[in-house]
Amino acid sequence: MHDRGKLLRCYTQNIDGIEEREGLKIGGKDAQICQLHGDIHTLRCDHCNVIQQYTVEWMDMLLDGEAPECPECVRKCKLL
Q1: Is 33 found in the same domain as 3?
Q2: Which domain holds residue 49?
Q3: Which of 2, 37, 41, 47 is catalytic?
Q4: DSSP assignment of 31-53, as one string?
Q5: Has residue 75 been placed in a domain?
Q6: Contact 2, 32 (CB under 8 A)
Q7: Residue 14, domain member (yes or no)
Q8: Does residue 55 form part of some domain?
Q9: Using one digit for the tens of pLDDT, what is the confidence trace for 27-68?
């Protein structure tokens, strides 16, 4: 549909990023793809909603059942 110019918008539950690898625009005003459940490349803080890229350290923490600290929340706490 995209190649024929027929794709207006696609809502997906895929989290693997296949649409982005195929060159479709994700997010923003001109997005063709709306990801309903996020993706496997980012984490969103439950407190401040900032989106961060996964790191190896965070993945190890998550696999151990621990939640990593949000750098934005930590930064804001230091300002107080």
Answers
A1: yes
A2: 41-68
A3: 37
A4: -SEEESS--TTEEE-TTT--EEE
A5: no
A6: yes
A7: yes
A8: yes
A9: 777 777 777 777 777 888 889 989 888 888 988 998 899 988
